[in-house]
Amino acid sequence: MPRLNLTPQQRRSADAEHHVATALQQQGWRILARNFRHIGFELDLVALKRQTLIVVEVKARRHRPDSERELSQLLPRKKREALLRGATAMSSRLETAYNTIRIDLAIVYRGEQGRPCIDYHVNALTHY
Asked: What's CA 78's distance to the chain center, in Å?
């Protein structure tokens, strides 16, 4: 059910999360949770791919980030710490078997002719 009374930024974020979730499902990923909230954090998407539990931080942007600096600013230290706490909290609640946990970053931006594009970064915490 769509959420009503969203600000334009909230709508862009929700659309970006939906776009990423759809793309991941088309690749065979199982989406376990969307907007999982716990004390002090929210996880945009939690998915399972084979035996890996994956937390996906989704960022909606008008343009594709064009530098490592821009990418690193998307995941400041406090956000990285919150993602790690969130992954731990989520993993303790799951009854699904997995071997590893990974945190990825998906950036959704407008490409040619306004079409949404996804830049997907695997293991984002080790890179930024």
From this structure: 16
DSSP letter assigned to residue 114: G
Instruction: Please state, in angstroms and rounded to a whole number, the distance separating the CA atoms of residues 66 and 88.
Output: 31
Collect all residues with Cβ–Cβ distance below 8 Å to 33 and sequence separation of at least 6. 43, 45, 46, 90
What is the value of pTM for the model shown? 0.88
Helices (H) and strands (E) in the chain, counts: 4, 5
Nearest Cα to Cα of residue 26 among 60, 45, 1, 49? 49
Structure tokens at 14: 């929700």
Write out pLDDT tens, residues 26-60: 999 999 999 998 887 899 999 999 889 999 999 99
Q: With CA atoms as reference, report the closest residue to 107 among 8, 35, 13.
A: 13
Nearest to 53 by CA among 81, 88, 23: 88
Q: Which domains does the chain have, with CATH numbers?
A: 8-127 (3.40.1350.10)
